[in-house]
Amino acid sequence: MRAPVIADIHHVSINVSDVERAEAFYVDVLGLTVLPRPDLGIAGSWLDAGQGRQVHLIESTTIPDDAGQHFAFRVDDIDAACAHLTDQGVEVAGPFPVGDARQAFFHDPDHNRLEVNEPA
C-alpha cells in the first residue's frame, strides 16, 4: 500500500489588486498575522492563518471571476464570526447547515470568495 503524498494544506495563494488593502482586511477584519516574506520579485504578503496554515496574497492585475472557487476558515462559533464580519461591514451569506456542519460565505475586497465553517 502506498503512503499518502499529501500530509496537510500548507498555504493558499490568491490574487489581489492592492496588497496593502488586502493585507489590512485579512489582518484587521479576520485576525491573521503577517509573516516574513522573501523578495520574490512581485508584490505580496504572507499571512499566518493558524495551525501552520498560511494565506499568500499576490498582487496582480488579474483577479479571477467568482465562479464558486473559495477557501474556508474553520471557526468554533459561526454565529459570532458572522456577527463580527457584519459589524466590520462585510456582507455575509449564511450561516447554512451542511450535513452536521454550518458554513457562511463572504468576499474579500477583491471579491475572492471566502467561507467560515463550523464543523459538527
Description:
The protein has 120 residues and is of the alpha/beta class. The chain is 18% helix and 38% strand. The chain is built from two helices and eight strands; from the N terminus they run E-H-E-E-E-E-H-E-E-E. The strands form two sheets. The protein has a four-stranded mixed sheet, covered by helices on one side.
Rg on CA atoms, Å? 15 Å
Q: Which residues sit in consecutive blocks of at least 5 with pLDDT less than 50?
A: none
Structural class determined from secondary elements: alpha/beta
Proportion in β-strands: 35-45%
Helix segment tally: 2
Mean pLDDT: 94
Order of helices and strands: EHEEEEHEEE
Order of strands, main sheet, comes to: 1-4-3-2
Beta strands, count = 8
How would you sum up this structure in a few lines?
The protein has 120 residues and is of the alpha/beta class. 18% of the residues lie in helices and 38% in strands. It is globular.
